[in-house]
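Chain A, query sequence.
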Amino acid sequence: MQTSRWRIWLSILPLLIAFCAAPAARAQQPTAPASPEATVPVAAPPAQAGPTDVQAAPATEASRTIQPARAIPRELSPWSMFLSADIFVKAVMISLAFASLVTWTILLAKLAELALARRRVNAALRRIGNARSLAEAQVGLGARGSVVAALLAAAISELRLSEGRFVESGIKERVASRFSEIVKSESRAVRRGMSMLATIGSTAPFVGLFGTVWGIMNSFIGISKAQTTNLAVVAPGIAEALLATAIGLAAAIPAVMIYNFFNRRTRSYLDLVGSASGAVGRILSRDLDGAPGAMLRAAE
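Chain A, predicted structure.
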């Protein structure tokens, strides 16, 4: 009887195990992977990625960041460099441009002034060339505002002041002193503006160099802030700084050349004034050889 019971339990046991295992299998079925093929595409990219692919990714990103700078380069024309320059460098450039404008203005003004003065002196010398007395020379010259008229007026004035004390050597000495003062005054007048040309010619290169040093210093400060040694980053700032030196040279070189040109022209004009002084002195000597009283009455 007991043997038959054990046989019954042994036959029922497999059925119970299968019945209990079926719900567990059904509960695990939704979370299980559908098939081996479905997992292959997910795991395939990490498996196929090699060292070359890992190195290509940063290069691509770097090329993407550099590409816009290459596509839109910074304009480096003189005007754009002036606009993008530092405020101090701009002030230096403006001052040098103003100095250059002053140089060319002095050139035009002095050309007209010297040409007109030379024409007046030559015309006056032609009028008094054949005069036999100061009175005749003054009548022939008229009331023309030239240095020759001033020389004649000085000679006649000295004769009037020396009335009653006619000593030929003393009169000539005093008249020569007056002539020397008139020539010096004319020299100062004709050389007006020359000192400005000399100042611009000697200082403009150093002013431009000062602006260049300032701009390059700012460029190196920009290098330290950007933490890069790429020349494309610092080249615009250095070009802007060098533009100040170029403007300084453009202002200085014409100033020096114009100064040398007018230095020769003024010496030539002053030689002409010296000739006029000599001509008036010869007329005075003729008058002194005659009757002083008649000379004064004719001058009056």
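Residues 101 and 251 are 8 Å apart (CA to CA). Residues 79-299 form one domain.
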